[in-house]
């Protein structure tokens, strides 16, 4: 998958976190969109093709997890990565968070890179019909 054709949406309330993530991902060659709210993020996803979403969950409330599940329902082909500081050093299984992967905050650049590339490589393999 050509990286410049990949669009990643960052959803995080903190503008500084969004800015750092945007910079890291753009340096990797991705096109990046960002917003502070899930509602605006969903509208952006309806208007533009997004391949992967990085979404912050400040807590693990049922409502926030349901928002992630709703993104998965509306956009089943989009990979979803949940980021949160409440995970501690060991993120929970991604399926519990209705996501493809979970990353603990503060996000480590190498972990972000590896996770994003791994998910996008999996998507490329599926598009080629290889399982």
Structural class call reads alpha/beta
Flag low-confidence runs: 125-131
Secondary structure: helix percent:
40-55%
The count of β-strands is 5
Order of helices and strands: EHEHEHEEH
Which strand order do you get reading across the main beta sheet? 2-1-3-4-5
The percent range for strand residues is 15-25%
End-to-end distance = 16 Å
Biggest sheet overview? 5 strands, parallel
Helical stretch count? 4
Mean pLDDT score, rounded?
A: 86
The coarse silhouette is globular
Describe the structure.
- There is one protein chain.
- With 131 residues, the protein is α/β, with parallel strands linked by helices.
- The chain is 42% helix and 19% strand.
- It is built from 4 helices and 5 strands.
- Strands 2-1-3-4-5 form a 5-stranded parallel sheet, with helices on both faces.
- The longest helix is centred in the C-terminal third of the chain and has 19 residues.
- The C terminus is likely disordered.
Write the layout of secondary structure elements.
Layout: E1 7-11, H1 15-27, E2 31-35, H2 38-47, E3 52-56, H3 62-74, E4 79-84, E5 101-104, H4 109-127
Parallel strand pairs: 1-2, 1-3, 3-4, 4-5
Please tag this protein with its features.
disordered C terminus; 131 residues; 5 strands; five-stranded parallel sheet; alpha/beta
Short description:
With 131 residues, this protein is of the alpha/beta class. The protein contains four helices and five strands; from the N terminus they run βαβαβαββα. The chain has helices at residues 15-27, 38-47, 62-74, 109-127; strands spanning 7-11, 31-35, 52-56, 79-84, 101-104.
């Amino acid at each position: 998958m050509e990286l410049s054709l990949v669009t990643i949406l960052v959803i995080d309330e903190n503008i500084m976190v969004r800015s750092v993530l945007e910079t890291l991902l753009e340096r990797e060659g991705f096109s990046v969109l960002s917003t502070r709210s899930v509602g605006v993020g969903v509208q952006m996803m309806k208007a533009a093709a997004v391949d992967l979403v990085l979404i912050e969950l400040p807590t693990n409330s049922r409502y926030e997890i349901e928002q992630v599940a709703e993104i998965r329902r509306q956009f089943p082909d989009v990979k979803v990565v949940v980021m949160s500081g409440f995970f501690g050093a060991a993120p929970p299984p991604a399926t519990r968070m209705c996501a493809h992967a979970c990353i603990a905050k503060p996000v480590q650049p190498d972990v972000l890179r590896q996770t994003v590339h791994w998910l996008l490589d999996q998507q490329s393999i599926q598009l080629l019909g290889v399982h």
